[in-house]
Amino acid sequence: MKIIHLSDSHLGFSSYSRLDEVGRNRIEEMVYSGFEQAIERIIELRPDAVVHAGDVFHHVRPKIKPLVVFQRGLLKLMEEDIPIIIISGNHDAPKSFSSTSPFRLFEDLRGVHIAHRYRYERFAAGDSYFHCIPFCLEPQDYLAEFEKIERQGRDVLVMHGLAESLANRKMRSVGEHELSDSFLKSDFDYIALGHFHGQAQLSRNAWYSGSVEYFNFGESQDRKGMLLVDLETGRAENVPVKPQYMVDHPPIDCSGMLSEEIGQCLLELCHEDEIRDKMVRITLKNVNRAAYRSIDQGRLNRLGASALYFKIRPLFLDEEEHFERSIDRRTLHEEFSGYMEEKSTQELIPAKTKDDVVAYGSEIMKKAVLARHKEALDAS
Amino acid sequence: MRAEEREKKVAIKQENIQPSGAESLLNRKVIEERDTTYRIVSKNVSEYHFIVPFDLSEEERVEVGQIFSIKDQGLTFLARAVNIEHSSNYDGHWDTTMKGTQFFDSDQIFNRVSAEPLGCINRKLEFKKSRTLPTKFAPVARAEREEFRFLSQVMGDIEVGYLRNGSRLVEEIQVALHSEVMDHHMGVFATTGMGKSNFMKVFAASCMRLAARGQSKFGLLIVDPHGEYLKGKGPVKGLTHLKRYREGLACYSTNRQNASDPGVEELAISESEIFPEDIALLYEWSPPQRDALEAVSRIFDPASWLEEIKSPEGMVRMMQEGFKDSTVNVLVRRIKNELERNPYIRKRSSLANILANLQKGKVVLVDIPRMSDRSELFLLSVISRYILDEYKKDEKEGGESRKNCLITIEEAQRVLGSGSNISRFESIAREGRKFGVGLCAITQQPKLIDKQLLSQFNTLVVMGLGDRNDRRQLEESAKQDLTSMDIEIQTLEKGEAVVSTLNIPFPVPARIHRYEDYLRRLDKEDKQESLIARGGFKPFLD
Q1: A360/B348 touch (CB, cutoff 8 Å), yes or no
Q2: CATH for B438
Q3: Chain B residues lying within 8 Å of A374, measured CB to CB
Q4: Domain extents for chain A?
Q5: Is there a single domain that holds both residue B333 and residue B405?
């Protein structure tokens, strides 16, 4: 049995201010067309099932357009008799039981199985069973939901969140929705993960398919696309949907350069045809502020006109000091307990009170940070 | 029970102390019945003697290890009984005279208790080492919780048991180790069956509690070759049974069944994390084989040597370096065997997760049941090297928020022995502290551990050692003086311990909690706290 694994479509994501000829956000439209291309590609490949591992929509309350695009995609798959298994992710799951999930609109479609009720659900497709754990409200719920899984013989696990080992490697901040690596059991035939936007293999049988689109420059080096997985052999191969369209040039050292020279450098990098419909960022480091200012701004603007998005990021010489200043990397609750500790050692606060306040306060702060993260507009 | 409240029949005749008149010294006074206080009679600053009736009842009997308090003009001296002997005011062989039972005056015979001074508590309830001795005939009584109150102030945050006075418990006073000194190494010494595993579980449970509350100051790594810590066996509970603080625990297992638990990660080590010196631990090697093994890191890329050396080209390269084909064959065969035997060696690796959890201050349990002795050492060596290297890196990069860590080694005499060739653990013992990595050595035979290393251990938990050489080795290298506790250590019962650590002024006798009882207590404690931990108060999300 062959399946297609994709995730993180983020339909409805819009960014930057470039509009097309009828006034639509260009990036937003690109995300819709990317999803449509992915559906086309799936139909060409004719898998036995499709798994979408979360974040179909970018918002909990999507606008009409993303709903329509998604519905069109589902209907196409239905026509082709390709079942699809979907879980909700941190972006498209409401953060309380009282709101209604957008997925309610699509529940009754034939061959469409959606897990979005903050609890484990199992769906059968072909000869395989898909064990789905969608976005859960509390981090500890994942463990409880996982315990409900009963193996059926041929089992695929579908989850959404940042796996612990990836979080450790990426040095992500606390508060992110983290999945324990203990869920990555080697006896699943396949583990389909969503949330991380680069394609990545975590263990023999566990993969992030990555997203089809680029959502920020941090992803410029990521492999994008979908995965075609053969559940018999466990082999997973990349199915690219779009050519690489994000270019983040390595920083150019501009120390000692005059405005003319900087301009020349930029010109060389920005041939109109090469950057057409791409997202381009050029970083200039050690730039003399005066030299940069005297570059013809009109010329700079014209430079990136054909690009989907174009950004020059100058790092000025005189900002170096600022950058080198040590940054307080402590999280809010760490800083808070540090402060309380200090006051307590000065005997301004009794130790017992301090312990209570720190325990109680840290918990509230962690929750607040987590809530803030969930609401964040970036597409992580 | 206070001395003056006691109702004891005492019939010791003593000198009446009347400091006002010298002549009154000549008046002998019979201490009345019910007057129960013993009195200091001698001897010097480093040893006190007092006498007690020779026929004390079972309940009142004095035992070695008991702590007595001596009240003297606002000061309270504490002293621990180190020996008890028969004594009397008669000379010669009076007690072996065959003249029936009425040949002696029972007032004249008694037991003499020698006690070692621990220190003294002043009026401000501060404990100091004592530089003087209590006034002669100062009253002596068994120390009770009031006198031990000061200990509560010097105890740390990792609760392991209750204070014990002789074989009695002083439940109000918890014995707790200090998180801050855990990178100064710790030793747990006991013969089989004295409760080492129980102690480690209690210790781990307290660490889990701290971690789950976000108060942990160090991560604890336990590698368990017996498979007893994770889920326990039968009525004996494991660490996963402490559901309340499960958040503070991260588990890894090589056992299929254990790893099927959603909270337990399948242990995986990637080939690139294995170094030739780890392989060296696995077998006895002849000198040429050892040479070949040492040359490996020079000949191959350290990240892929395991892959390369197994290939025909790799073997050819070894031979080109002048090693005999038989030597190389043995080397490769053994490596292949080892990789096959240890299916946890994979592409994926758990080490980064283990490290991250330690740095978050959690308890990390690596469960490796039914693994051979050498395979276990091999694994322990790979993990601890990784941890030490990363902590060293962190030290350079100035990682501020990471917590220290403590690596537990079972049967530590295998790796810290004076003749041991496993230098990795020695190097942790010697330099780990600089980087925030401590060792917790568990052993039945401290006598086999290198003396110099042993002297680096600042926390000792001694739980009954029958072998005199073991005790002597400990006494000679301990930071606090344990020599006078020799008899006590020898006579410790199951679950009893003597805990010697920095920050607590003298070696403290303790009864370690029974893990199962401790579990029950932790599960019940402080409901309010559970509300916080479980997110019962959610002002932002609701």
Answers
A1: no
A2: 3.40.50.300
A3: none
A4: 2-239, 246-324, 332-375
A5: no
Per-residue pLDDT tens for A251-277?
Answer: 888 888 888 888 888 888 888 778 888
Which tokens hold the place of B216?
């942990």
Q: Are strands A155-160 and A190-194 parallel, antiparallel or unpaired?
A: parallel
Which of A137, A145, A168, A353 has the highest number of chain B CBs within 10 A, making it the mutation to test binding with B? A168
**Phi, psi at B232, each rounded to 5°:** 70, -170
Could you tell me where the DSSP H helices lie in chain A? 26-45, 64-79, 141-146, 164-170, 259-269, 272-275, 289-293, 297-303, 320-324, 332-345, 351-375
- Do B264 and A182 lie within an 8 Å CB cutoff? yes
Give the pLDDT band of residue A9 (cuts 50, 70, 90). very high
Contacts of A367 in chain B (CB under 8 A): 535, 538, 540-541
Instruction: Clarify whether residues B409 and B491 are in a common domain.
Output: yes
Q: Report whether B15 contacts B9 (CB < 8 A).
A: no
For residue B529, what pLDDT is reported? 52
- Rounded CA gap, B67 and B113, in Å? 11
Q: Is B225 among the domain residues? A: yes
Q: What are phi and psi of A111, to 5 degrees?
A: 75, 5
CATH of A2-239, one of 3.30.450.20, 3.60.21.10, 3.40.50.10860, 3.40.50.20: 3.60.21.10
Q: Please state, for a pLDDT cut of 90, what percent of chain A lies above it.
A: 43
Let me know if residue B355 belongs to a domain: no
> How many independent structural domains does chain B possess?
3
d(CA A160, CA A169): 18
Across the interface, do B533 and A363 touch by the CB < 8 Å criterion?
yes
Contact assignment for B355 to A168 by CB distance below 8 Å = yes
Chain B residues touching residue A363 (CB < 8 angstroms):
214, 532-533, 535, 537
Q: Is the domain of B374 the same as that of B245?
A: yes
Task: Kindly report the nearest CA distance between residue A145 and chain B, in angstroms.
Answer: 10
Q: Are residues B248 and B377 in the same domain?
A: yes
Range of the domain at B314: 276-341
DSSP string for B405-466: EEEEETTTHHHHBTT---HHHHHHHHHHHHHTEEEEEEES-GGGB-HHHHTT--EEEE----
Q: pLDDT higher for A83 or B109? A: A83
Contact present, A156 and A189 (Cβ < 8 Å): yes
Measured N-to-C along each axis, helices B373-397 and B423-435 cross at an angle, to the nearest 10 degrees, of 30
pLDDT 10s digits, A121-160:
999 998 999 999 999 988 888 989 999 999 898 999 999 9
d(CA B478, CA B501): 10
Q: How many CA atoms lie within 13 A of A87 on its CB side?
A: 31
Tell whether B446 and B520 lie within a shared domain. yes
CA distance, residue A335 to nearest chain B CA (Å): 10
Burial A206-220, CB ≥16 within 10 A → b, else e:
bbbbbbbbbbebebb
B103 in the same domain as B51: yes
Report chain A's C-alpha Rg in angstroms: 24
Domain boundary among B124, B153, B182: B153
Write out chain B residues lying below 8 Å of A364, CB-based.
537, 539-540
The answer on B232 and B287 residing in a single domain is no
Answer for the pair A336, A365: CB distance below 8 angstroms, yes or no: yes
**Rounded Cα–Cα distance for residues B436 and B429 (Å):** 11
Residue of B240, B353, B526 to mutate when probing chain A, most A C-beta within 10 A: B353
Does residue B537 lie in a domain region? no
Contact between B540 and A371 using a beta-carbon 8 Å cutoff: yes
Q: How many Å apart are CA B307 and CA B298, to the nearest integer?
A: 15
